[in-house]
Amino acid sequence: MKKALTIAGSDSGGGAGIQADIKTFQELSVFGMSAITALTAQNSLGVQGVYPVSVEGVEQQIRSVSDDLAPDAVKTGMLFDKEIIDVVADLADHYHWPELVVDPVMVSTSGAKLLKDDAIEHLMTRIVPLATVITPNIPEAEVMTGMDLNGLANRKKAAQELAAHGAKTILLKGGHEDGADTVTDLFYDGKSFHALSVPKINTKSTHGTGCTYASAITAYLARGETLLDAVILAKKYIHTAIKHGFRIGQGPGPVDHTA
Ligand code: PLP
């Protein structure tokens, strides 16, 4: 069986973070493993607390998994601060995992900070160049490039800018575009662009979308798909999961991994 490791934050509410990643790996028949960077106390109404794990704790989880269980692909999500970024980057250098998917998580939809402001530059310089692919959404790509990303032409420029910063491949997700009835994700490998478009689904139950999309890419890479095929297959998975998003608490619900 293929194996995937997620290095990310825990969502006690079960919809995003480590929990979304492991559910996705399981649905896609990949053995899921985890290194938890932070606990969040969270439910459908928002994030009530963030409790980072010690750097030593993060390091040892990654070493324990990598030394014995040899992941076929690794994904990073919430990395929270500079110290955790440093240890993840050092270990990525050390272990040379076959594939590394970097979801540059910054802020939850409910507004909680999942990456400290002073760690953004660190993420850009230490983690981004190590990634097989990075998966920013529009607000994240705006922070990473300092550009205003209205429209596809600007997003192409932003993808080129991120490539100039050392990202090998960029999947710039279009789901946050205002008022659009089509969602277009832009895939750029430094040479050519591929646009992946689907009709926008009108729902508020999208909690965990970004985590699920990136972990589906990771699972398909672990299974040996090429990067573009992994993204296309993951896009199908997340589109179906969003279509079947459902409410389980008082706030917006999660996507459905079993759909
Ligand atoms: N909690 C954790 C631990 C996350 O990693 C993320 C997103 O990456 C979120 C919450 C936010 O999820 P959403 O913005 O889909 O609500």
Summary tags:
alpha/beta, UDP-N-acetylmuramoyl-L-alanine:D-glutamate ligase, six-stranded mixed sheet, three-stranded antiparallel sheet, binds pyridoxal-5'-phosphate, ATP-binding, PM/HMP-P_kinase-1, EC 2.7.1.49, kinase, phosphomethylpyrimidine kinase activity
Nearest-integer average pLDDT: 97
Number of helices: 8
Instruction: State which percent range the strand residues make up.
Output: 15-25%
Could you name the ranges where pLDDT drops below 50 across 5 or more consecutive residues? Answer: none
The strand count comes to: 9
The named CATH superfamily: Ribokinase
Question: Can you list the ligands bound to this structure?
Answer: pyridoxal-5'-phosphate
Percentage of helical residues? 25-40%
Output the CATH topology: UDP-N-acetylmuramoyl-L-alanine:D-glutamate ligase
What separation lies between the terminal Cα atoms?
23 Å
Please characterize this protein's 3D structure.
This protein is α/β, with parallel strands linked by helices. It has a single domain (about 5-245), classed as UDP-N-acetylmuramoyl-L-alanine:D-glutamate ligase, CATH 3.40.1190.20. The protein contains eight helices and nine strands. It has a six-stranded mixed beta sheet, sandwiched between helices. A three-stranded antiparallel beta sheet has the order 7-8-9, sandwiched between helices. The radius of gyration is 17 Å and the shape is globular. The two termini are about 25 Å apart. The structure holds pyridoxal-5'-phosphate. Pyridoxal-5'-phosphate (PLP) binds near residues 40, 108, 109, 208 and 211. It holds the Pfam family Phos_pyr_kin. This is Hydroxymethylpyrimidine/phosphomethylpyrimidine kinase. One of its GO terms (molecular function) is hydroxymethylpyrimidine kinase activity. It comes from Salisediminibacterium halotolerans.
